[in-house]
Amino acid sequence: MSTPFPEGFLWGGAVAANQLEGAYNEDGKGLSTQDVAPQGIKGPITEVPTEDNMKLVGIDFYHRYKEDVKLFAEMGFKVFRTSIAWSRIFPNGDELEPNEQGLQFYDDLFDECHKYGIEPLVTLSHYETPLHLSKQYDGWVNRKLVGFYERYARKVFTRYKDKVKYWLTFNEINSILHEPFMSGGIYTPKDKLSKQDLYQAIHHELVASATAVKIGHEINPQAQIGCMILSMPTYPLTPNPDDVIAAMKSEHMNYFFGDVHARGVYPGYMKRYFREHGIDIHMEPGDAEILKHTVDFISFSYYVSICETGDSSKRTQEGNLIGGAPNPYLKASEWGWQIDPQGLRYVLNMFYDRYQKPLFIVENGLGAKDVLVTGEDGVPTVNDDYRIEYLNDHLVQVGEAIEDGVEVMGYTSWGCIDLVSASTAELSKRYGFIYVDRHDDNTGTLERYRKKSFHWYKDVISTNGQSL
Ligand code: BGP
Question: Ligand 1 pocket: which of 41, 174, 318, 320 to mutate (most atoms <8 Å of CB)?
Answer without folding.
Answer: 320
